[in-house]
Amino acid sequence: MALRETYTPRGEQRKLVENLLGKGASLKGDSIDVSILDPPRMCKSFIVGKCPYDMLDNTKENMGKCPKWHIEKHKLIYETAKESGIKMPRQNYELDYMNDLQHFVGDCDQRVRIAEERLDYSEADKQLLNDLARTVENLEKTISITSEELNVVQEEKRDMQRSIELNEELQKFILEKETVSERYSATLERLNTVGQQKLQVCEVCGAYMSKVDNDRRLADHFLGKIHIAYAAMRNTLAELREKHSI
């Protein structure tokens, strides 16, 4: 009866190397060519840590497949070279990884600022509502006057050209009133919704949260894949900035 092979971390690494590079292959510090990792098309985030594209996969913020290469063999080469003390460009590519994280976190911070500005409606939106209501009122008066003049011209049948012009103006005013009315309704609905829900913006992922949510709904948010992804990106970015004094 054959003895079952004993599990060891070194044995598992050997199996992984053989699966990726072929049976009998090995990675030794003095035989590793790290130049294979340097091409710009190589995803440094993937080989150093976690690629943000992968972290946001299957979420509402899914941006599709990363445009750079994700190759397991290269990740293994990187990890083995690092363990062997082999220095690679740009602080073992950690500066490239940091740049990728800064891009994603920076975009998220911008969304947070925009979302917070949308919640700050107190004076600006009140003024907007007043302006829209006043515009609708003026358009209603204009429509009434134009309609009356059109009726007079049509009844007297004295000026067909003027009748056509008045009808075109009337339709234009009616369309403009409908557009402004729709904008007024949408603005009012948004203000009512925001006021009722007492929304706030999550500073980690940029999502809207209700201040009156129960503990379960808050837990669902904080355990959501998007929130966890951005929290991890921010933590890793902070660690890299501290490590490299940036």
From TrEMBL:
Highest rank taxon of the organism: Eukaryota
A Gene Ontology molecular function term of the record: mRNA binding
InterPro entries registered for this protein in UniProt: Luc7-rel
One annotated Gene Ontology cellular component of this protein: U2-type prespliceosome
Coiled-coil region: 122-156
GO BP annotation list: mRNA splice site recognition
Keywords: Coiled coil
Matching PANTHER family: RNA-BINDING PROTEIN LUC7-RELATED
Family under the similarity heading: Belongs to the Luc7 family.
Protein name: Uncharacterized protein
Organism annotation: Pichia membranifaciens NRRL Y-2026
Classification of source organism: Eukaryota, Fungi, Dikarya, Ascomycota, Saccharomycotina
